[in-house]
Design goal:
This protein has 289 residues and is mainly alpha-helical. Helix content is 73%, strand content 0%. It has helices at residues 5-16, 19-49, 54-80, 83-89, 93-97, 103-124, 126-129, 140-167, 171-203, 222-234, 255-258, 260-283. Helix 3 packs antiparallel against helix 6 (103-124), helix 3 runs parallel beside helix 8 (140-167) and helix 8 runs antiparallel to helix 10. The protein is globular.
């Protein structure tokens, strides 16, 4: 079986450094502290009221999952934004292109290396998410669907970071551009929906905006997909629900509303494929006619 040489080299270099263990330690330390503080607040509430509310234990799962998702939004673009532009700055990209390596080998090797780091973070956080199994209410398929949502988000944002890294000449510019893409995908689509809902309430007689074309923009939003997953598991009052009241109207979209989660994941993977195609095009050397 042929292993991508870029991935093999990056994996060996990463295994010899303390960067990866420190990232895993810091990531899981934040999640563990958040989970322990939440459990401490629940225990304190039980001591004061002498009542046990099992819904609060499910809130532990929702809260930790939301914190982990937000951390991934900050970590993923930073891992891939400097992958190709860093090679340009070190003047090693041209040397790679003079070998038998193709531009696609370089891009996919960098992507797999970044995704392997993210996958380690996601898998290593499973015991913290598994704390909710002590009290019940969440099944293994639920956690598996959540992890799948994390992986799709990692592929999308990692591909966007590689595209920005292939376009930009400097890693700083590439990093800023990668986080700008994240803001556009999450905040941009959300703002368009809020504006469209406001206009719909002003023009409609009943004052309630119906699901319209702007709802389909949320298919590109990984945060909306994450919230839809939580809504299917715990109801509409958890996670990032205050930011996405529009998701309560996805049933009005027909087929897309019934299969919102798989459709949104498929759309985001398609967008990731477009980013990767653009990264390969920008990495490939220009040949004169």
């Amino acid at each position: 079986m042929r292993i991508n040489p870029i991935y093999r080299q990056e994996s060996r270099a990463g295994a010899r450094s303390f960067k990866l263990p420190l990232i895993i330690l810091g990531f899981n330390s934040v999640l563990a502290v958040v989970a322990l503080l939440y459990m401490y607040s629940m225990i304190t509430q039980v001591r004061l009221t002498a009542e046990i509310q099992y819904s609060s234990f499910l809130g532990l799962y929702s809260f930790v999952a939301t914190v982990e998702f937000v951390l991934l939004l900050f970590i993923i673009p930073g891992l891939t934004a400097g992958a190709i532009s860093g090679e340009r700055e070190r003047q090693t990209l041209d040397l790679m292109l003079t070998t038998r390596l193709k531009a696609s080998d370089i891009v996919f090797g960098k992507l797999v290396q970044g995704l392997s780091t993210i996958f380690l973070l996601i898998v290593s956080s499973f015991p913290i998410l598994g704390l909710v199994f002590i009290y019940g209410g969440v099944t293994m398929p639920d956690v598996g669907l959540l992890l799948l949502c994390y992986v799709v988000t990692a592929v999308l944002l990692g591909s966007a970071g590689l595209f920005c890294s292939a376009v930009a000449r400097r890693s700083t510019i590439a990093t800023v551009a990668a986080y700008s893409v994240v803001v556009i995908l999450i905040a941009g689509t959300l703002v368009v929906n809020y504006l469209a809902d406001g206009l719909g309430e002003m023009t409609s007689a009943g004052g309630n905006a119906a699901a319209g074309w702007q709802m389909y923009l949320l298919l590109w939003n990984p945060a909306a997909t994450f919230q839809a997953v939580l809504n299917s598991q715990m109801g509409s009052g958890s996670g990032l629900a205050p930011l996405f009241p529009q998701l309560e109207r996805i049933a009005d979209l027909g087929m897309a509303g019934r299969y919102w989660r798989p459709v949104s994941m498929a759309v985001q993977l398609l967008l990731a494929a477009v980013f990767l195609w653009g990264a390969v095009r920008k990495t490939r050397p220009v040949r004169k006619k």
